[in-house]
Amino acid sequence: MQMIEAVIKPHKIDEVKQALAKLGVLGVTALECKGFGRQMGHTERYRGAKMDVGFVPKVLIKVCVKSEDLEKATAAIVEAARTGEVGDGKIFIYPVAQVIRIRTGETNEQAL
């Protein structure tokens, strides 16, 4: 099993959710967050004055998938989240040792 963490633009969340649902991936956790990368934030106007905003609003999506579904799920996220502009985000992937569904006690792939 693999954990996929994707940091994406907030307006892309629905497209990513739909792309994953088409693959049968229905368990997704989304967290609102702020961050910056190479773009180093952005500039906004407040009452006519320019202000540098160091952190840009983002959404962190966490999805646990079977190892054999990793490539398809990652490709779906990339395709749905890409705008071609700076700040599209990043995907981080790491192994998951164990999953337990609290309600039933099912473990690992049965718990997904």
What does this protein structure show overall?
This protein has 112 residues and is of the alpha+beta class. It has a single domain (2-111), classed as Alpha-Beta Plaits, CATH 3.30.70.120. The protein has helices spanning 13-22, 70-81; strands at residues 2-8, 29-35, 42-46, 49-53, 56-65, 89-95. The chain has a four-stranded antiparallel beta sheet, with helices on one face. A hairpin with a 2-residue loop joins strand 3 and strand 4. It is elongated and about 55 Å long. The mean pLDDT is 89.
* Overall helicity: 10-25%
Name the structural class: alpha+beta
Strand fraction equals 35-45%
Stated plainly, the CATH topology is called Alpha-Beta Plaits
Low-confidence stretches: none
What are the main properties of this structure?
112 residues, 4-stranded antiparallel sheet, 20% helix
Short description:
The protein is α+β, with helices and mostly antiparallel strands.
Question: What topology emerges from the helices and strands here?
Answer:
Blueprint: E1 2-8, H1 13-22, E2 29-35, E3 42-46, E4 49-53, E5 56-65, H2 70-81, E6 89-95
Antiparallel strand pairs: 1-5, 1-6, 2-5, 3-4
Helix pairs in contact: 1-2
